[in-house]
Amino acid sequence: RPLLITRVERKAKRLIHRVRPSTGRAGPPRAFDLKPVYSAAASLRYPSRGAPLGDALRGATEPGQAIDAAFGALALAIAYGDRGRAEGLLAFLGLCYVSADLDAGTARMGRHLQECDLVPGSRLAALEYNAGWSVLMEGVRQQAVSMAGAGPRPERRLGFELLPRRVVLRINGGLGNQLFQYAAALAYARRVGAPLRLDLFNYGQPTAEREFLLGRLRVPIRRASSFDVLSTRLRPHRERWGVRDDFMFGDNGSAWLSGLWEDQAYFAEIAPLVRRRFRPRDESTAEASRDLVRRARRGDGPVIGVHLRRGDRGPGGRAFSPFSSLPARYYQQAASRFPTDANFLVFSDTPEDIAWCREHLGLGDSAHVTFGEGRDPILDMFALTECDHVILSAGTFSWWAGYLGERAGRRVIVPNPLQGLSVGRVMIPCPMPSQPGWEEVTIAPGDG
Questions:
Q1: Tens digit of pLDDT for each residue in 190-233?
Q2: Which of 5, 130, 232, 288 has its CA 20 to 30 A from that of 437?
Q3: How far apart are CA 356 and CA 42, in angstroms?
Q4: Cis ω for the linkage preceding 2 (within 30 of 0)
């Protein structure tokens, strides 16, 4: 039976979506438009610095628009004094574009800001935009010294507990996101001595884009009751992305949790338990994964698992960015690190993405390349963990495929942490840091 609090929340959101068309707020813009982004940066009045950038990215379909969106994100980071974002975007732009593109992007950034009413004396007003990328970069670095970075978000939480402790996790996203969220929340619940319950609101709607998959693993699924959700919503905690979440390392009692927590530090103390639970519940799925690897093995060469993250990272997607869908050249460079008799087993998001891989990936002799179907994330992930070595894309799914399959002598090839991120998520320090021993590949700017 649907939970009462979940039903009320869902009805309220549907009502808001029906009202928005009459107020001119129905969905993302159809055309690429950076004016709201630069207006927000110039005026410092926009209530949510990420919303206009997200709308612009959903309208971006060309490489030139991707670089302009990255400069728009840089303007927002400078205006709001977010040091981690600003420094991360400086490094990101330098990794993804050649100097001529950067100089042109700098000039366009200056023209956009000239059309806005810059706050006198602001950080953006003090920068030089007509002397090229190197001058702008140096100016931003000098200003970054005085930037404090994004601080923790103030929250209204009850300061006392009248009821037995409980922790409720509002879980969302695909398989990789679900694994990070569950592992972090389980560690917190054990730290405070409370049972963990799952709030599955995001998966109970007809329009849900992702499927709840933890139930297919050896994870005990205990869904939150209406009372669990209602009582813990009085003590909420929402992660501020890009900032170390100290809340999760302390004893803060009952909580309703919402976030991503894409760092193994959050569950390091229970890592063995996480590894035991994050295995297929159905042994037939595990056997099918091993069978995929056996069928890919020809001769004496090793089997190299390859994962491509595509989907919404392509042009017009919510996570579009220069290298967010890593080019074939990255996989070719990574494949060249293995012997010529290596066998490649390729996975991606959907059957359509697998078709793209067949046509464009180009890993060498086709007799040594086998493709998955792109229909079952659980099967694909655990087939990757069974491979002798892996070549991973950027993303949570790939990270877990590398982490859960770690064993002596296994090589894990990953992209530079900054390359492959969407513009909206670029940050120093990077999310999902590489494990010790993982080999990084950095794509040369313009090499795609």
A1: 999 999 999 999 887 766 678 999 999 999 999 999 899 988 98
A2: 288
A3: 41
A4: no
401 touches 305 (CB < 8 A): yes
The enclosing H or E element of 182 equals: helix 175-192
List the structure tokens of 329. Answer: 């050249």
The alpha-carbon radius of gyration of the chain (Å, integer) is: 23
> Which residues lie below 8 Å from residue 217, measured CB to CB, with a gap of 6+?
277, 278, 279, 280, 281, 378
Q: Are 322 and 63 in contact (CB under 8 A)?
A: yes
User: Hey, what are 436's tokens?
Assistant: 């010790």
Report whether 390 contacts 306 (CB < 8 A): yes
**Beta-carbon neighbour count of residue 143 at 10 Å?**
17
**Tokens representing residue 273 in the block:** 């338990």
Helix axes 283-296, 377-386, angle to 10 degrees: 60
Look at the block and give the residue holding tokens 């979940």: 6
CA distance 70 to 105: 9
Residue 303 in tokens: 């089997």
**159: burial class by Cβ within 10 Å (0-12, 13-18, 19+)?**
exposed
Interval 106-121 mean pLDDT: 88
pLDDT score of 380: 96
Structure tokens at 175: 């398989």
Label residue 9 exposed, middle or buried (CB < 10 Å: 0-12, 13-18, 19+).
middle
With the CA atoms of 99, 132, 316 and 238 taken in that order, what torsion angle do they form, in degrees rounded to the nearest 10?
Answer: 110
Other beta carbons within 10 angstroms of residue 227's beta carbon come to 13
- Over 356-421, what HEC string results? HHHHHCCCCCHHHEEECCCCCHHHHHHHHHHCCEEECCCCHHHHHHHHHCCCCCCCEEEECCCCCC
Is residue 124 within 8 A of residue 79, CB to CB? The reply is: yes
The sheet carrying 255-258 orders its strands as: 196-199, 167-170, 255-258, 236-238
pLDDT at 417 (0 to 100): 86
Backbone phi, psi, residue 339, to 5°: -65, 160
